[in-house]
Amino acid sequence: MLGTYTYNEIFRKTIVAFGTLFNNIEIRRSDEVMKVPLAYGPKQKFLARLDQNPDPTNKRIQITLPRLSFEITGVEYDPSRKVSPTQKIKFKKDSDENKNVFMPVPYNIGFELGIISKNQDDGLQILEQILPIFQPHYNLSVKLLTTVGETKDVPIVLQNIDYEDDYEGDFATRRAIIYTLTFTAKTYLYGPVTDAKVVRKTQVDYYANTDTTTAPRARRYTVQPESTIDRDGTVATTLSGTISKTSTGFAVANASGINQYDNIYIGNELMRVVNKSGNNLSVIRGYEKSTPTVHSVGSNVFIVNDADDALLESDDDFGFGEIYSEFTDMKKFNPVSGQDEDI
After folding, report:
1. What does the DSSP assignment read for 247-263?
2. I want to staple 292 with a disulfide (CB 3.0 to 4.6 A). Which of 111, 191, 202, 285 is the partner?
3. Average pLDDT of 66-77?
């Protein structure tokens, strides 16, 4: 398992999302509006820059206050949010394949946000724009897994607030007021995303005894998904008259293409044909939990068959067709060839 390359950039996305929360903080002084700069890095870095002696050969401009800085302080597994590690999430890729990924692993990322200002009013303006948002958490929607479009709410929890007034020396020394806010981001990590074919048929064979190498199959159960609506748009015929919600017998214009035990679809209702006499049909109404309704004369009648089943996709609603078979031919199924062969 180790050594399988996977990089979903989840840590990076969480860091960027966290920083974006504080990207539009501003302060106001009389008629002046100033956007507070934000950068990733430890606040000690900016404090050290403040304390540097001027260098005439260095063209860099001295940093301005106030400003915001943030950084990661730690990563920790969160057992309280653990889910089944063997369960998989399936995402539709196309009509024949899904994308699979194991359930995400919960991790907490610690963040530290530093507010550095040279006077108390600037710092309090910034602080009051941040604190009311967290009560004590704020849910941030992050697209953690872009390959399948998986978006999760990541709670950002405010854990602690520290205050420090760094003012030492004489009046010429620059003052730095520092508020340090500690946060925890409750994110998730995903493993590799794999492709898997959509299962369109399940077959179970029962053998005559436990020695399956020599025993023939005696019974077989086969289950396949069946469409419960018309999908190919092919009209078989039309209704010859209006039918009520409870009517189980009616006539169609031409029933030559409809056989006993076919599924037909009118409006949004699926019906099962149980008998046919000429152009008259006897049906089971509301088949596969569809809702019986009134259908007017001339309504299109569709046949729901294998052509519609072939158009099913993994995220569609569908029913199941079951087949039970018994055998006495002394054969067994070969999964390689897909055929029943002599023992």
Report:
1. --EEEBS--TT--TT-E
2. 285
3. 93
Contact 154, 137 (CB under 8 A): no
% of the chain beyond a pLDDT of 70: 90
Angle at 300 between CA 259 and CA 315, to 5 degrees: 85
59 CA to centre of own chain: 50
- Beta-strand ranges (E) seen in 167-285 are 176-189, 194-197, 202-207, 217-226, 235-238, 249-251, 263-266, 269-277, 280-284
Asked whether residue 158 carries a pLDDT value surpassing 90, the answer given is: yes
Give the CA dihedral 99, 100, 103, 107, nearest 10 degrees.
-60
> Under a CB-based contact definition with an 8 Å cutoff, are residues 231 and 290 in contact?
no
- Report the alpha-carbon distance of residue 128 to residue 285 in Å, rounded: 64
pTM for this model (two decimals): 0.61
Q: What angle do CA 167, 169, 171 make, to 5 degrees?
A: 85
183: closest CA among 129, 231, 131?
131
Mean pLDDT of the chain: 86
Determine the Cα–Cα distance for residues 269 and 285; give it in Å rounded to an integer: 8
What is the Cα gyration radius of the chain? 34
**Range scoring the smallest mean pLDDT among 10-19, 29-38, 74-83, 180-189:** 29-38
For 81, what's the count of Cα atoms within 13 Å in the CB-facing half-sphere?
16
- Give the model's pLDDT for residue 61: 47
Q: What is the DSSP letter of 289?
A: G
DSSP H/E element including 190: none
d(CA 178, CA 120): 9
Instruction: Give CA torsion, residues 126, 129, 132, 133, to 10 deg.
Output: -110
- Two tokens at 318? 């569908």
Peptide bond into 335 cis (omega under 30): no
Task: For each of the domains in the chain, give its residue range(s) and CATH number, in order of start.
Answer: 10-77+104-189 (3.30.2000.40), 198-342 (no CATH)
| Pairing mode, strands 67-77 and 38-40 | parallel
Give me the pLDDT at residue 31, please: 81
Q: Comparing C-alpha atoms, which of 42, 116, 32 is closest to residue 72?
A: 42
